[in-house]
Fold:
Amino acid sequence: MMPRHLVPSSSPCSRVRPSRAAAAPTTIPISTTTRLHQRLIFPAAAAAAAAAAPMDGATTRPSPPHHSHRLEALSREHETIPERLAVVTGGNRGIGLEVCRQLSVQGVMVILTARNEKRGKDAVESLRHECNLSNIAYHPLDILDDGSVASLAKHIETRYGKLDILVNNAGVGGVVVDQDGLRALNIDPNTWRSFNCFLSKSIQMLSGKAAHLLERVVVQTYDEAVKCLNTNYYGIERVTEGLLPLLKQSTSGARIVNTTSLRSELQRMPNEKLREELRDADAWDEKRIEAMLDEFLEALEHGRLEEAGWPTMLPAYSMSKMVVNLYTRILAKRHPEMRINCVHPGFVKTEINWNTGVIPPEEGARGAVKLALLLPDDGTTGCYFDQTELGVAW
Ligand SMILES: NC(=O)c1ccc[n+]([C@@H]2O[C@H](COP(=O)([O-])OP(=O)(O)OC[C@H]3O[C@@H](n4cnc5c(N)ncnc54)[C@H](OP(=O)(O)O)[C@@H]3O)[C@@H](O)[C@H]2O)c1
Structure:
């Protein structure tokens, strides 16, 4: 099947795929992309969630012109290169902001990134003044935008020449929510959370019940699904690829932490054959992931998710996080000199779940911070963590 490169109708930074796929985009007509898929339901994602090697400079690092080399050297002479430098995406609020705070408290120099300048700068100011932290700086980053990633990479290259920690935190829920309607349902978050404790068959059953309850207030649209895959998976891939040359220059052992979700667990994938295939990371690469996501979107577009065996609860969000896990494993194999893991932060009270979560961001950030700071150089890589503990997602 021809890969389809989908462009959501609303966002200016709307390229669905990383740049390699941008060559022959096909635009989905607005009339198609705005159609609602009313049959698909989602317990508040949330709810359910409620549930060094030296850099091979010639190939991976662009050679700046002669005068840039001089400028770079001058610039670095006047900078103290931090022992550990971290980039956190989506650092302006929620779990990302708290990851920035905890890393900074531990003495890491943190680049708090955010797509909105005011929100990003306000967040840095709040950490500087309220928490008395000075080792934190803002840099713009929209993870949907190749140029924005390139600009961040250039900034780090010029100023620091390396990166030690990348926390891919930014994410979206991928659904349209009637928040008043959701509140009116008055669902106890613990009810949703308990669904996660059941075996897969029960999950399917209870999820159906949950889906029924929520079908009017939480709706999967095609546009939101595209935005969700773009942000939660292709965004992570774009940022990681853009910053990998700098991570290879780490002097303290590079760490990548990808934020995933309980919804990524393969037991939630109804298609048994695909579920088994997804367990074998060796059989996958980015191209195959892209082809699978195209198939998923096509099924969603034609209202065939259930029939084709795709997840029907928070479908796009679940798929996005399943492939984050897969990508984490692929990357970990490809870069054995780094420690690359993914983490479910817990059911955290943040905007992504309309503040229905049950633990504070302080707790939700702990897993990512542990994976960023506490893994030894020969520690776990290519694994899934449920908060601070090793978990099973595949
Ligand atoms: N909260 C939970 O219970 C829970 C559970 C499982 C997994 N997670 C995951 O945890 C991560 C953080 O979520 P959260 O709970 O802290 O939610 P949140 O408060 O909604 O924060 C999401 C962050 O992502 C940013 N973001 C979204 N799209 C972006 C883009 N294109 N470029 C740059 N930044 C972008 C948002 O920026 P703006 O402010 O500009 O929108 C915001 O800073 C997500 O990956 C989420 O899937 C959360």
In short: Residues 46 and 188 are 12 Å apart (CA to CA). The pocket of NAP is lined by residues 46, 49, 89-90, 92-96, 114-116, 119, 141-144, 169-172, 231, 235, 259, 261, 344-345, 347-348, 350-353, 357 (CB under 6 Å). The domain at 41-57+68-390 is CATH 3.40.50.720 (Rossmann fold).
